[in-house]
Specification:
Its cofactor is Mn(2+). This protein is of the alpha/beta class and 414 residues long. It has twelve helices and 16 strands.
Length: 414
Amino acid sequence: MNLLEPIIQFQQELKAIRRDIHAHPELSFEEVRTADVVARQLEAWGIPVERGLATTGVVGIVKGTRSGNGGAIGLRADMDALPMQERNTFDHASRHEGKMHACGHDGHTAMLLGAARHLAANRDFAGTVYLIFQPAEEGGGGARCMMDDGLFTRFPMDAVFGMHNWPGIPVGQFAVTPGPMMASSNEFEITVNGKGAHAALPHLGVDPIMVAVQIAQSLQTIMTRNKKPIDAAVISITQIHSGSATNIVPNDAVLRGTVRTFSMDVLDMIEARMRAIATHTAEAFGATVDMVFDRNYPPLINHPKETAFAAKVLAALVGPDKVNAECEPTMGAEDFAFMLQEKPGCYVFIGNGEGDHRDAGHGLGPCTLHNGSYDFNDDLLPLGATYWVNLVHQWFSAHAGAVAETAETVEAGR
């Protein structure tokens, strides 16, 4: 493992920053204190800062000093916490009831800050790095909001890169794959409108519960009879609500759940089939339905060229045998997907281990994402920061000539 020595030297400072952020978690679009911490650190290292994108977003700007034009790239970290109770009792546990950094965004922020500090002191590259500290990844669509506020127009970049810790992957290892890396995230609500009656006289009503049961079972035929077997997708009905008493046929029943796909075409097909099945099943029983289908995040699709480049940087850092360059995609979702729809780039997983890094006083649950016993592994701080720095230097080294040549070609054609 070829970690940068200067980053190792200030690992303890990064650890202190990470644990401070962990102890003061803030939810989507409420990351005021966290943004202050980030901006204060960047400015202390001589990095110009722009604030206010998506309310609490922060963008740091590091310009290289080497002659030539390698263009610009973006490095993104998310800052928000989750609305859940922490089960850990160690010293840096959450001090805010019902809020917790249970997905490692505190660590993502600290790793990018580590890279920022090193890049600010070592600007021997030909290009510009935009350090993107994003709010509201956890369901708030902060990436899209930053884009709506002009992220890519105010800070034009040729590519954008992201990284997320992944429990279960050993520390010192990475995983990445070209194409689909994470799934789209979508939610649905189907309301079955029946006709209430006395449970002893069901023939006088239209039972919405029986209609809901039929719809629930029929929706799974989309997976087995409408979707091509080689296309991955999930329909999960996670809630069915109806009724208030044992002797009443209720007026309505509600089904809620999620749909995950790696393809927008598959998603379009699933939504259309869900509407048709729900509508016509209800009609067959004399009921009606209202269906709401919310598309939250699109699938996260890594671009082949940028993914191959990132995998090469990772292999040089930890060794080819420590990089799973064809990892299995996950049905989890990430709003970095919005950025990859607009710009080429790559998103990688950095191994967070199995949880034996946690301080005494951790909860008894597993060290998995979105779990009250989770904690980010501070051993990743210099590793993640080194990856960012190496990516920057190798990117501009590889692209400076190409950008300059393109500019000359355009000029010659005028």
